[in-house]
Give the backbone structure.
Amino acid sequence: MAVALENARLFERERRDAEVFETLAEIGREVSAILDPDELLTRLVELAKRLIDYRTFGILLLKEDTGELEMKIGLSTASACSCRV
């Protein structure tokens, strides 16, 4: 019985790992295929949700001229709002 439970646990872990690797591969394909930065950021947020169960998520980009981080896209599932700067 213990062996069967361990095998089931290992099988589930392998399934989750395969899903993660597939999502990472999809992110790589999207990065090389989507040319519009806003569309790409939106797609990355959607794909990240598959990997990370987040309540709040944001992507900040570095402004080279000032060295400051600029919020490009943010999402909060807690209040069901999203924003784009």
